[in-house]
Amino acid sequence: MLSNVSTRRGFAARLAALLPGLGIAGMVSPTAGAAEDNTVKKLDYEGKPAKSTGFITPLIVYNGVIYIAGQGAHSRGDNSDAGKQPDIEMHTHMVMENVKTLVEAGGGTMDSILQLTVFLTKLDDYDGLNKVFKTYFPNGGPARTCVAVAALPGQSLVEINCTAAVVNTAKKG
């Protein structure tokens, strides 16, 4: 029986390696025929095409993956409170609201976030960051990297970028 499993696994591995070369993988994938998946979509916070005048695009959707540029407490709108009260919990909440807005505009959800990269100006703020994260990821968080940096733009205490999976194709822009 073990030889049958081994043979089946070997066959499956060889078949999986062969499919991309034959162009068959695209026919059996769940997004088969979705030509828009191969289009890079540069979007704004509302999920509409981003203005071409900006040098940073907050949201890019490509091939079923959402890419979100670094979001700081200063990144969206006025957020003038960000510099007045340098509190990690307030800044993390502001950043996570930006992330949530962008993920949803790209057709994802907080649960579809695959990976986060977090930049903190002080590692002492790690526990405060985690306290806020628990409220955004009650079902368990994504893969995450957290690093300390000397400073962030706009006196933000935290900046986060991420990737997420598109789960709602109706909102992909």
Note down, in words, how this protein is organized:
The protein is an alpha+beta fold and 173 residues long. Helix content is 34%, strand content 21%. The protein contains 5 helices and 6 strands; from the N terminus they run H-H-E-E-E-H-H-E-H-E-E. The chain has helices spanning 2-22, 25-28, 81-84, 88-105, 126-136, and strands spanning 41-43, 59-62, 65-72, 113-120, 143-148, 158-165. A 6-stranded mixed β-sheet has the order 1-2-3-6-4-5, covered by helices on one side. Strand 4 (113-120), helix 5 and strand 5 form a beta-alpha-beta unit. Helix 4 runs parallel beside helix 5 (126-136). The longest helix has 21 residues, at 2-22. The radius of gyration is 20 Å and the shape is globular.
Q: Which structural category fits the helices and strands?
A: alpha+beta
Helix content: 25-40%
Low-confidence stretches: 1-5, 21-35
Beta-strand content estimate: 15-25%
The beta-strand count equals 6
Estimate the global geometry from the Cα principal axes.
globular
Distance between the termini: 50 Å
* Order of strands, widest sheet: 1-2-3-6-4-5
Compute the CA-based radius of gyration: 20 Å
Whole-number average pLDDT? 80
Q: SSE order in H/E notation?
A: HHEEEHHEHEE
How is the biggest beta sheet arranged?
Answer: 6 strands, mixed
Query: What count of helical segments does DSSP give?
Result: 5
